[in-house]
Amino acid sequence: MFNSLGNLLNLTTFGESHGIAYGGIINNFPSGVEINLEKIQYELDRRKPGQSAIVTQRKESDKVKFLSGIFEGKTTGTPIGFLIENENQKSKDYDHIAEMYRPSHADFTYDQKFGIRDYRGGGKSSARETINWVVAGALAKQLLPEIEINAYVSSVGDIFCEKPYQALDFSKTENNDVRCPDAETAERMIARIKEIKKEGNTIGGTVTCVIKNVPVGIGEPVFSKLQAELAKAMLNINACKGFEYGSGFCGAKMTGSEHNDSFNPDFSTKSNLSGGIQGGISNGMDIYFRVAFKPVATILRPQESVDKYGNPVIVEGKGRHDPCVVPRAVPIVENLAAFVLADLFLINKTRNINQFK
Amino acid sequence: MFNSLGNLLNLTTFGESHGIAYGGIINNFPSGVEINLEKIQYELDRRKPGQSAIVTQRKESDKVKFLSGIFEGKTTGTPIGFLIENENQKSKDYDHIAEMYRPSHADFTYDQKFGIRDYRGGGKSSARETINWVVAGALAKQLLPEIEINAYVSSVGDIFCEKPYQALDFSKTENNDVRCPDAETAERMIARIKEIKKEGNTIGGTVTCVIKNVPVGIGEPVFSKLQAELAKAMLNINACKGFEYGSGFCGAKMTGSEHNDSFNPDFSTKSNLSGGIQGGISNGMDIYFRVAFKPVATILRPQESVDKYGNPVIVEGKGRHDPCVVPRAVPIVENLAAFVLADLFLINKTRNINQFK
Amino acid sequence: MFNSLGNLLNLTTFGESHGIAYGGIINNFPSGVEINLEKIQYELDRRKPGQSAIVTQRKESDKVKFLSGIFEGKTTGTPIGFLIENENQKSKDYDHIAEMYRPSHADFTYDQKFGIRDYRGGGKSSARETINWVVAGALAKQLLPEIEINAYVSSVGDIFCEKPYQALDFSKTENNDVRCPDAETAERMIARIKEIKKEGNTIGGTVTCVIKNVPVGIGEPVFSKLQAELAKAMLNINACKGFEYGSGFCGAKMTGSEHNDSFNPDFSTKSNLSGGIQGGISNGMDIYFRVAFKPVATILRPQESVDKYGNPVIVEGKGRHDPCVVPRAVPIVENLAAFVLADLFLINKTRNINQFK
Amino acid sequence: MFNSLGNLLNLTTFGESHGIAYGGIINNFPSGVEINLEKIQYELDRRKPGQSAIVTQRKESDKVKFLSGIFEGKTTGTPIGFLIENENQKSKDYDHIAEMYRPSHADFTYDQKFGIRDYRGGGKSSARETINWVVAGALAKQLLPEIEINAYVSSVGDIFCEKPYQALDFSKTENNDVRCPDAETAERMIARIKEIKKEGNTIGGTVTCVIKNVPVGIGEPVFSKLQAELAKAMLNINACKGFEYGSGFCGAKMTGSEHNDSFNPDFSTKSNLSGGIQGGISNGMDIYFRVAFKPVATILRPQESVDKYGNPVIVEGKGRHDPCVVPRAVPIVENLAAFVLADLFLINKTRNINQFK
């Protein structure tokens, strides 16, 4: 169904940046799963504003409250409703933009499509919506305990983490504010973001995600291939401009003899340019993909723009904004990937009669 | 619904490479649309094998037959069933691979997931499935006559079409076999493909797609953003490894002051790094995106692999295969994009009460 | 999508009888609809427990709180989240049935299906869930202001309202506790329910619903016929055992010459045994249907039953229960019908190109 | 998705009465199921026109041809495409009604909704569409070999089969043309239909369906209850006017003490007024329901009607029509029920983590 996430495991959400609350309903989550609420809050805390010097200083406690579907510590198989209250709503910050269209924001398109919009903090178009996705993904992770999902910042502007993911120690991702497991690169990224922030500017970056221990068989050809479901989820994240998996865009420069992954006798492959997916179905190798994020559109500088009547105006970002989204995007990418995998994992339980004969 | 395309306008398909026929059902196509069958066959002919020296020499007439939903030249609003018969089924070509797992093919994953597979020509995993998508997309184009969709080959291996799309004349795309509107680049691409073919090898490439005249308001935040639906569709195409739109991965290197698209008084934007989409909704500017394709896995050289028991075997591509998929991918990308747009266009007709008051 | 209501206009809900709250998300509700919150609360008050002597004396204020999707009195086209807090949770009332299976309740089937259940007040299987449906339907009514939907109690046990609906004045439905617009019949129904209540017993009944001013064309053949969507919605109501529309089961006794509805020159029909629907599509005549409800399973008498281990036990209803559900079912049927109509109404906006050319 | 059948196991269909062919695609059917094609054709033969003196004499061989999804006798898990060609298309029979609106047919509503219709034999509104449903249901039966589904004609006009289903021998259902297992009642039903046919009239009836050996746990509260999915499917059958299960409309006259089904120590119930379903979930007892069918609208007598301009006309049924649909409805009801059960059976495989831990 459009405007909800997942095919069988399903997430529907609500909430606007400066409304009363965000929340959602996770439908068709299996019964009997023990839920660790601390782990869910941990993921929210990773996404939370105000956690470091290089993200927005906006303060929100972002505590999730579960309203149904969990009984005596286990899921009951009935819909899981959850709520995150908005605390820090300085609506006044936004009165001045009620009739303005900010460059590269959704003000104009929402007004045109719906004829009305909640302009406060971008309303529905705010990236605060992703808080709901983190809750759902963190639950999905608990459905698939054996699967390891690690995302990290692989570039900020033109500073790239040159090491391949195999050379990185993901236990170090949380050791620095930018969430790049390579300490030396992290330092340079942080310096770059601080510099950009001082200029009242913003900068883009990329997040790489590596998924280990996915069982063979996850993904639904021909229209719900694993990579297609991942791409759709990622492209729904605010500011995302691109997705590639396995060899990605580099693979388009290669020849077949270079690109083919030959098999070992145990059906693992010697190389993994395929990125753990063949024909839309997981093959048991690591799944890895990269997501591109544009620089945040809100900059703390005067910009020429127009109001809703087409009159020239000067807009200037106020309030507290992220100079670079990628550090906070890391938990969003990870948990969103977990949700996509859980959905396809459940579907796969229905695809071969011999599983339940 | 998983394993079908589209949310409201819906395509379900069937068919295997060496089965009796391909076909599909287009559900919820509006009534009253005049259908030009020649235009649909034209798109199929662009995708068809054997049309030039740089694609597979496999011969198929690929004639589509409509079985329902069109009456006296117009759609009736009832399901449109269509059929394309398979003609050229040299099943024997494939007997030798019945128990083999070809490198970077879906043989292993299908066997593992389903416990059975039609191995002839890759069966369901064959890219011949895309013939169904071209039929559906070509119909969708006739629902949106005002929208112009032009795809072209923007790279083959490391040969890139350096000119921006604005500098290209799309009326020239069909003037050469590789479908690059820049004649000089096309020549070099064709030479490269012929060279690769002579070596029994294959090569990757990219396709760029430009969509003009999309009305403002198409796309459904928060989970069916226009770019997300496009990405999902494209990543379902066989051999696709990546998708980017607007500034794409380059945008991740930029700063906000460079990247923001400022408005003109008529709400068009001075630059268009956003790629015609803001907040998941079309803003009236050109929509453009790029799709990466890996090199075809079937190469006409001996490769080490394993059979379904894990025993080492040598596989060698036989029969007639594409040395490079991108020339034939052009109509697939175009028509698939048309289908995605038509689906979201119809949904948009329900999103604002003032449209139908 | 299963476990949600509606195809395009979509309701997802959560909540258990003795949990923290009920609530839901209405997705894809069009923008620009002025919302009258009093009218929504009015429908909830009609459904509310404790409103009269012949319904349960359980007390709940059942106040709905909207959390998103409505801005400055109008819908914004973004998801509408709402919440109804549970107040009156005497969980202790239910401790004694934690391991018991009550006759004709869902205790056994939930335990078997999910391996766990929230037993308090029936948990998810409680009819309190319908509070969510009333909220969604009351919103849907405001999308279709011209359509008149009137349900009423047409029988309690063997006491029937003999008058055809055309002879009834629906403005009188709310004049009595049982919600039968025929005062004399209402009195007898009320007396019967009081008598049954005194016996600690319960009784069944039927609700008839009449829908006027539905535009021609609502309903989607072949798998989402208007009557099929209504039937599905009604059969999801707790205790519902049957649905018939137009001539219903009586029509099965008739001949074609008796049953056919002949046309007037204005395309209205002289008779209306079809119940306002032809081929699954509304024809502009009154739509009417009848819904059967079994007697409430909880009776205030000792009954032989078994516990989860199969041991014989005696269960006796405690707490406050409805002796007859039909008076409170009236607003549920009405609002549920409104939601189904609104969903199909929106879909119909996409089915004929000439509507938006 | 609207206009398709099933939530996870999915059927999409096409075809018009006098088009080239009917057909459909069954999506998400599990792999590894051995398919007996004879059994599928057997169900089609039971539905076929011209099989006895009391059904239409229209002749069609109704042979189904499978085009994909079955390989070496087993399902592959990929979409199953099928085709039934139309043979007996006397389009001329219908030229005279091209502009006429037949009483109690869908001519008017289709024209109004879609602005165009294939008028030949009712086009899409023809009950011939149900041939697709029988194919899909017959396949679904092979997914659930242990489940026994038996439907039979329980009334024709005012002639009822008075015996409860428990007293009937379903092996005798096919022994007579009307498909009532009680020989004596069958004779009276047949005589009544012949009499009605002689008068050029038609008559209604009911079909009862009994389903044995359904495992406990099938059905999805709260919006996809087993009875709700069955009701939706049945109300989509042409001419269906009502559905009741278990005690049905009679249950609405009963008291709780009469209606409750008390448990045996093995969790079976002493009585079964619930009809094998509690809280929308199968409880292991027999599931039984009854479906009402109105008399066929086409009668071989002159009737006053109007044309599309509102001018009075006389319509008179020509060609070959059923005097009573219920004998041919029996296999439709049975196979449609099988499809609904298979869909919910597959969904249930995903609802409890302990099933696949």
UniProtKB/TrEMBL annotation, chains A, B, C, D:
Keywords: Amino-acid biosynthesis, Aromatic amino acid biosynthesis, FAD, Flavoprotein, FMN, Lyase, NADP. The gene is aroC. Gene3D superfamilies: Chorismate synthase AroC. It is an enzyme of class 4 (lyase). NADP(+) binds at residue 47. NCBIfam families: aroC, PRK05382.1. The lineage of its organism: Bacteria, Pseudomonadati, Bacteroidota, Flavobacteriia, Flavobacteriales. It catalyses: 5-O-(1-carboxyvinyl)-3-phosphoshikimate = chorismate + phosphate. This reaction introduces a second double bond into the aromatic ring system. PROSITE patterns: CHORISMATE_SYNTHASE_2 (PS00788), CHORISMATE_SYNTHASE_3 (PS00789). FMN binds at residues 238-239, 279, 294-298, 320. Its EC number is 4.2.3.5. This is Chorismate synthase. Belongs to the chorismate synthase family. The keyword rRNA processing does not apply. Reduced FMN (FMNH(2)). Pathway: Metabolic intermediate biosynthesis; chorismate biosynthesis; chorismate from D-erythrose 4-phosphate and phosphoenolpyruvate: step 7/7. Its cofactor is FMNH2. GO terms for molecular function: chorismate synthase activity. Homotetramer.
